[in-house]
Amino acid sequence: MPSLRLALRTLFKSPFVTAVAVVSLALGIGANAAIFSIFDEMLLRPLPVAHPDELINLAAPGPKPGSTSCGQAGECDVVLSYPMYRDLERQQSVLTGLAAHRGFGANIAFHGQTISTEGLLVSGSYFPVLGIQPAAGRLLTPNDDQAIGAGAVAVLGYAYWQSSLGGDPSVVGQTILVNGHPFAIVGVGPKDFDGTTLGSQPDLFIPITMRGVVDTHFQAFENRKSYWVYAFGRLKPGVTLDQARSALNGIYHPIIQDVEAPLQQGMSEATMAQFKAKPLVVSEGRRGQTSLDKNARTPLALLFGTTGIVLLIACANIANLLLVRATGREMEMAVRLSLGARRAQIVAQLLAESVLLALMGGVASIAVARVTLVAIASMMPPSAASALHLQLHASVLWFAAALSFATGIAFGLFPALQSTRPDLVTALRNNSGKLSGTRGAARFRTSLVTAQISLSMALLISAGLFIRSLANVSRVDLGFRTERLVTFGVSPELNGYTPDRSQVFFARATDELAAIPGVTGVTAALVPLVANSNWGNDVHVEGFHRDADTDADSRYNVVGPDYFHVIGMPLLAGRDFTAADAAGAPRVAVVNEAFARKFGLGRDAVGKHMSDRSDSLDIEIVGLVKDAKYSDVKRPVPPVFFLPYRQDKTLGSLQFYVRTSGNVEPVLRSIPTVMKKLDATLPVENLKTLEQQVRENVFLDRMIGMLSSAFALLATLLAAVGLYGVLAYTVAQRTREIGVRMALGADAGSVRALVLRQVAVMTAIGGFIGILGAVGLGRAAQSILFELKGYDPPVLVLSAAMLTLVAFGAGYIPALRASRVDPMQALRYE
């Protein structure tokens, strides 16, 4: 405690130095804590279940002839067929249980309240394998999924139970409507459990055997060529991951070769060999199953590295401040050493001061981290921000505390050792209050500033690359007009509508929306634009030869009348869809340029025939449309064919597009009222402008660009402060030398040049090192840069010019002060 009180008194004797150090550390540690919070949430944090290290994930890559459907839990090479999952579940002996799950869209109606949300289909073994306990009632068990279509029971998600139902335990035993079908509520999931897929937050869980009930189009439970199930399990005690992999493949391969291989029709020998040899991939599953971590790993690592560099620069500044302060304490150190104090005692005291300073910065960093997380959340789509739980968990606070302690040691150690060198006792004989300091300390200060400059240069160049990449993204020709266009979705089928009734509803909705003042056009589509939704199918095209190994896949969309006119996709030939393209009329399609190129149609696509179901070629191509982005702003335009939704007898949901003549706000406010008049129990989904949808599609690019720029500017500012501090101190140390030079005839310009030469040398050396580092960072970031190399000359030149300007700006004031030294006063300075 005496050491702590002494450290506090010492720090508060120089409040300005203390305040600058605390603010610098708060910014550096806070930025690191915020990025670590996201890093921990997306890449490190295990599932909140019992013994997560025992969990394993299953994946089935390789040829998958048939239909494949995947979601946020993983890419399509992960999913299994339902029969394969059940085979593995029955025959395996190395796991305590094997579980399956699959997300689905749900309209939930309870006590007059209807919402559109996300649900999770789970096997009866799902909760037992995870080893979690309910917050109320019970969870699903293997008894709930014994037969297809049986088991109309539901477990509510804890967040939904709290936010929408007030945490009322009496809801257990009541009935909830899920997609128009009654389910008995049997329990509530545990707190902080949002399923096993990062970024997903299901509001209820129902047996996987009920998929055909909540999705009337689904009839593939027994189809071994329909892949849609995600599976994971828990290892039995004493079983290793390798043993489980070997045992499960021992079951998987015979099923593939003896049961599933004979079902494949028209497959070439090469593809059949690949099909029979494909493995069942077994990997650790402590974090659940998700496709987000793979996409987020590189950007988050780069941002983490960036904030680490900012903290290094802040630490270098504080080390310089402590070195300067140590110079003023030479007499104190000399007296203490001469009176018998051990050097280790004094070093420990000085380190206590620096660690206390760092901990003060760490406490202040919590506020900085919170603000940074709020800013990051504002750049994300609302659903992603809520599902990721961007909060300062206990692990983040421990990280901030550990980082504070480590930085306190890092920036305090050299100044402590330097200020307690044994030869400081000589100061008792010649110290007169002058500013001194050893050459070693001076070289160290200069080296720190040079390192700061190099790190700032690397960050400025990296930020410039991300900004250029973001600019390239913003200039992408989407192929349609986003301005004054409002979009939203409705899913009547989730409320129990039949396809015929849905068609009537869509027609009424189109008419009512068109009557809103200011609306100039209304259309709809099955697949929303640039929303990361992909629907595809193999096609047969007139004149295009295909065999078993031919890539005949194309994306598709089912759209309404005047779709291309309302969306703003230019027709190159033929016509748009009209109201006459309805059920009973000849089937028609419009294709894009990429489709025409892939299938050899060229500009003569109109009048040709194709088919999306067999080789009947029963669809006439009536239009050719200019290429436009489909699911992603950054991906190349895929081949796409469009069908009129009025000819689809199974359609149960649509995404509407409403074009306005002016301000979209009145229309945005009117749409919920209009739709509620048509059906008060049918929720409007994701109401927004198309411009907002495009921004959300590239939110990761926007977030990286803005954060890297902010961190780079902060680093440059801190480096400028450090440069200014070193030069100001150097000028003060060299006051007598400068006075002698001026007394001997040196003018003010030559004195300024003397100081600025030091700036130039440090900037040149630091800038060159920084450019080399930036090239390495650019190569690491190449995968997330859009239409840009990792070494862009304009960015290098602009960053170098900016850093040079800032450096000389920071050095000019000390240089100016040096040029105004009075020679007579300078000669009396010491």
- Indicate the percent of residues in helices: 40-55%
Structural class: alpha+beta
Radius of gyration: 34 Å
Put simply, the count of helices is 25
Low-confidence stretches: 432-436
- What about the largest sheet? 8 strands, mixed
Mean pLDDT: 85
Shape descriptor: globular
Distance between the termini: 39 Å
How many strand segments? Answer: 24
Portion of residues in beta strands equals: 15-25%
Offer a concise description of the structure.
It is built from 25 helices and 24 strands. It is of the alpha+beta class. The longest helix has 37 residues, at 292-328.
Would you mind describing this structure in some detail?
- The chain is of the alpha+beta class and 830 residues long.
- 50% of the residues lie in helices and 16% in strands.
- It is built from 25 helices and 24 strands.
- The strands form 3 sheets. Strands 15, 16, 17, 18, 19, 20, 21 and 22 form an 8-stranded mixed β-sheet that branches.
- Strand 20 and strand 21 form a beta hairpin.
- Helix 2 packs across helix 13 (394-419), helix 3 (82-91) packs across helix 7 and helix 21 (699-733) runs parallel beside helix 24 (793-819).
- The longest helix has 37 residues, at 292-328.
- The chain is globular.
- The two termini are 39 Å apart.
Structure keywords:
830 residues, 8-stranded mixed β-sheet
List the helices and strands and how they pair.
Layout: H1 2-13, H2 15-44, E1 55-59, E2 67-68, E3 80-81, H3 82-91, E4 95-110, E5 113-122, H4 126-130, E6 136-137, E7 153-156, H5 158-165, E8 175-178, E9 181-188, E10 204-207, H6 211-214, E11 226-235, H7 241-260, H8 269-277, E12 281-284, H9 292-328, H10 330-338, H11 343-379, H12 382-388, H13 394-419, H14 427-430, H15 439-474, E13 485-490, H16 499-514, E14 519-525, E15 536-538, E16 540-541, E17 553-559, H17 563-567, E18 571-574, E19 588-592, H18 593-598, E20 609-611, E21 619-625, E22 640-644, E23 654-660, H19 665-678, E24 685-689, H20 690-697, H21 699-733, H22 735-743, H23 748-780, H24 793-819, H25 823-827
